[in-house]
Structure to design on (808 residues):
């Protein structure tokens, strides 16, 4: 997409003054709220449904606290990245974008480790009991969202080398992935609190 | 930079015409695609219904086997809800929303095309099951544990589960599109409180869809896991709970019935004022009642589960919320009647359908209030009384409303009238046939005839009512044939209608029929609820369609900036559905689908969209 086409698009007025894509993103995230809401409810219903098998006690609070901290910090990096791009600093925008990706990957790594650990050493698989089934479904779907987010951040990074997000240009590409990333982060706060902490 | 001339399809050859439809991102052409496809599925679902009615015409008939009968009622329900009525409403969203709010297209034209192609392929995918080892057979509600591999080891349920997931994606994408279009792309002066009532109902429906569909998405995910990776979410032997499925399904399923009725209510709210030559009575109250119905609609779902045994507290609470929802519904009905009062009414076919919708919906609404009472529900649960009720709201309400909409806006689609006399014949036959089909089912239900059973004994006393019902259903079938012939004939030979055949009040009647590809040469400025009436009558308002600030008054038509056609939507939709095929037929399809999806995603991003 050329810079001209973008400039052209920016001239269109919208009834609310909000960019169409951003409004669409908010609507999508509204839908996602119900998606994760349903998953979290299923998890809460089945939290103690262990059939005498492994349950909540297998969760590694130390490791997950660490990865949670990393994921929450990544939201700060996301904010800093957008701010840097807006201030015209491509370099810092890219660095912070890379940092968000890195932290997302650390979080995913922690999750992969956690899943393999549970399957191989704690005898917890999706078919063991409903605690396991609900846990893998909920945390797995959240992990998939983080993974998609990392890929999306990656494409934003690539596009920053292909003439996008230059000083003075519109930043909706970064803003959209930012909205998504903060949302996925927020969902994790709910999951961590409801499933791991209490 | 795209121009109107560049997007004009090369229709000199058949291939060029076909290609122009495949790549179209024009909301009006997508509306036509939705309309034709949904009517085809409507006919398919209707044939399934007729087969069931023929089987039930006489006691102990063996026209259709018990196994086939379960497939028929499952696919009849699924087809009518997801493949016929929702997409038929979507045809109206597509045609009317941009025209009514004074926009040149929807917010995301390619996403709009994607929604359509996903819907088409998803519908075909689900119906392939009839020739690929058996159609879905656990009811449109797919109650666990009927859907468990222990009871259905073939792929019948997988077709249903993956099919609904695919259609859900289509619905959610389309709804996001329409929410953004309505909130963000209104012409100057078109405040929320000046939007045509159909646009209000479209917006509320879109919000219902994005908030209700995730519940069934999760339900289906868990079901697919139960069937594919041996989890036990709905299997009691493994600690699971079949009632959880019912909750997840009806948290979606009840808002779904409002998703089906609200667009028809919107259509009726446009038709009644037009043919009474009066503004809609109590506009704001009608709009807010729609919103209230949607909101309360999320809090009534366990009235589908009164006989599950959730206890008197839950039953009472949900009975109260169910009764409460009758209030905003009643408010709408009184406002419609008040709109008619004192108007100078002309009974053209759209008006007949609209009045038919209101009156039939009242009957369905009343039996709904009866069913909302747990003691009555316990008596008639799973009988034909429920079948009668749901058809009075969904057929008497939605189908009548949508057909009225087709007659009303057919001139806008095509530039020609449908034949009004044959339209009235269609209406009369359908009205008689519909009541003959479903009124007796109330009696059957009270007499205790269970739903979803393929036959009944002669000595039960069900014979007469069933025969009446079958005769009525054949009349409905005949009326639909008359409609199709009338529509096909009118496309070519109908009387030319001009841009404003009904003296309409909303913006779509200010432009030619069929509308030019850019809709409005100049973006209108709106200062009332019926801008077209204001222009034509001049009174009280400044009322002129003026040039919007961003539109150049000197603009030649070819300079209007329209989106380019794109083939990525159809490729992406094909990729998604191929991946679903892979989960049933051969895993190679998953790879193929994923590759197609990836390529089309890249192509989509790289393609200049505007």
């Amino acid at each position: 997409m050329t810079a001209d086409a973008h400039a052209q698009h920016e001239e269109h007025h919208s009834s609310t003054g909000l960019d169409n894509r951003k409004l669409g993103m908010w609507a999508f995230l509204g839908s996602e709220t119900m998606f994760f809401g349903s998953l979290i409810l299923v998890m809460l219903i089945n939290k103690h449904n262990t059939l005498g098998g492994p349950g909540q006690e297998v969760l590694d609070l130390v490791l997950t606290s660490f990865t949670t901290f990393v994921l929450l910090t990544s939201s700060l990096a996301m904010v800093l990245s957008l701010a840097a791009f807006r201030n015209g600093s491509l370099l810092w925008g890219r660095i912070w974008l890379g940092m968000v990706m890195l932290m997302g990957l650390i979080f995913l790594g922690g999750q992969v480790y956690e899943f393999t650990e549970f399957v191989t050493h704690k005898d917890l698989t999706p078919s063991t009991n409903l605690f396991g089934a609900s846990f893998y479904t909920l945390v797995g779907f959240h992990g998939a969202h983080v993974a998609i987010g990392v890929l999306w951040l990656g494409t934003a990074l690539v596009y920053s080398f292909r003439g996008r997000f230059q000083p003075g240009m519109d930043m909706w590409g970064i803003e959209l992935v930012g909205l998504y990333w903060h949302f996925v982060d927020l969902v994790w706060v709910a999951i961590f609190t409801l499933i791991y902490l209490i | 930079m795209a121009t109107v001339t560049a997007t004009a399809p090369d229709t000199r050859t058949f291939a060029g015409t076909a290609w122009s439809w495949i790549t179209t991102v024009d909301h009006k052409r997508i509306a036509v695609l939705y309309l034709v496809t949904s009517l085809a599925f409507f006919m398919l679902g209707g044939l399934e219904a007729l087969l069931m009615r023929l089987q039930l015409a006489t006691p102990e008939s063996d026209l259709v086997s018990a196994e086939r009968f379960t497939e028929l009622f499952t696919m009849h329900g699924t087809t009518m809800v997801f493949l016929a009525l929702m997409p038929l409403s979507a045809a109206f969203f597509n045609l009317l929303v941009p025209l009514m709010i004074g926009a040149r297209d929807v917010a995301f034209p390619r996403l709009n095309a994607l929604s359509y192609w996903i819907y088409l392929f998803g519908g075909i995918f689900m119906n392939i099951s009839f020739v690929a080892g058996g159609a879905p057979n656990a009811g449109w509600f797919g109650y666990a544990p009927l859907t468990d591999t222990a009871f259905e080891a073939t792929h019948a349920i997988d077709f249903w589960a993956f099919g609904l997931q695919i259609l859900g994606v289509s619905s959610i994408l389309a709804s996001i599109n329409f929410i953004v279009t309505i909130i963000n792309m209104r012409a100057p002066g078109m405040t929320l409180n000046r939007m045509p009532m159909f646009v209000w109902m479209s917006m509320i429906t879109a919000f219902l869809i994005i908030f209700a569909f995730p519940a069934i998405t999760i339900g289906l995910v868990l079901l697919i896991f139960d069937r594919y990776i041996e989890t036990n979410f709905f299997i009691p032997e493994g600690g699971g709970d079949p009632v959880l499925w019912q909750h997840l399904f009806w948290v979606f399923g009840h808002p779904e019935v409002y998703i089906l009725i609200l667009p028809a209510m919107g259509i009726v709210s446009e038709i009644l004022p037009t043919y009474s030559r009066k503004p809609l009575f109590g506009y704001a109250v009608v709009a807010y009642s729609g919103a209230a119905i949607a909101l309360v609609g999320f809090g009534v779902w366990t009235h589908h589960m009164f006989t599950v045994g959730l206890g008197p507290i839950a039953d009472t609470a949900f009975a109260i919320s169910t009764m409460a929802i009758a209030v905003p519904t009643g408010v709408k009905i009184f406002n419609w009647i008040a709109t008619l009062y004192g108007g100078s009414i002309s009974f053209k076919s759209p008006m007949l359908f609209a009045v038919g919708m209101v009156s039939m919906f009242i009957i369905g609404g009343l039996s709904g209030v009866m069913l909302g009472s747990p003691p009555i529900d316990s008596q008639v649960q799973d009988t034909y009384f429920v079948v009668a009720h749901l058809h009075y709201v969904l057929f008497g309400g939605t189908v009548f409303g949508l057909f009225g909409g087709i007659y009303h806006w057919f001139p806008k689609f095509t530039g020609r009238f449908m034949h009004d006399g044959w339209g009235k014949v269609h209406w009369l036959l359908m009205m008689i046939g519909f009541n003959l089909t479903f009124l007796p089912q109330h009696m059957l239900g009270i007499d205790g005839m269970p739903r979803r059973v393929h036959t009944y004994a002669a000595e039960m006393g069900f014979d007469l009512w069933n025969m009446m019902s079958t005769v009525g259903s054949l009349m409905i079938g005949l009326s639909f044939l008359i409609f199709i012939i009338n529509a096909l004939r009118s496309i070519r030979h109908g009387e030319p209608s001009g841009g404003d055949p009904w003296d309409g009040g909303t913006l779509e009647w200010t432009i030619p029929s069929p509308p030019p590809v850019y809709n409005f040469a100049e973006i209108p400025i709106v200062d009332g609820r019926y801008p077209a009436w204001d222009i034509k009558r001049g009174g009280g308002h400044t009322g002129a369609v003026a040039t919007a600030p961003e539109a150049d008054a000197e603009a030649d038509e070819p300079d209007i900036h329209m989106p380019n056609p794109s083939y990525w939507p159809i490729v992406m939709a094909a990729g998604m559905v191929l991946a679903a095929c892979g989960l049933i037929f051969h895993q190679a399809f998953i790879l193929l689908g994923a590759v197609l999806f990836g390529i089309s995603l890249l192509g989509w991003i790289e393609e200049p969209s505007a």
The first helix of chain B runs from residue 4 to 7. The radius of gyration of chain B is 24 Å.
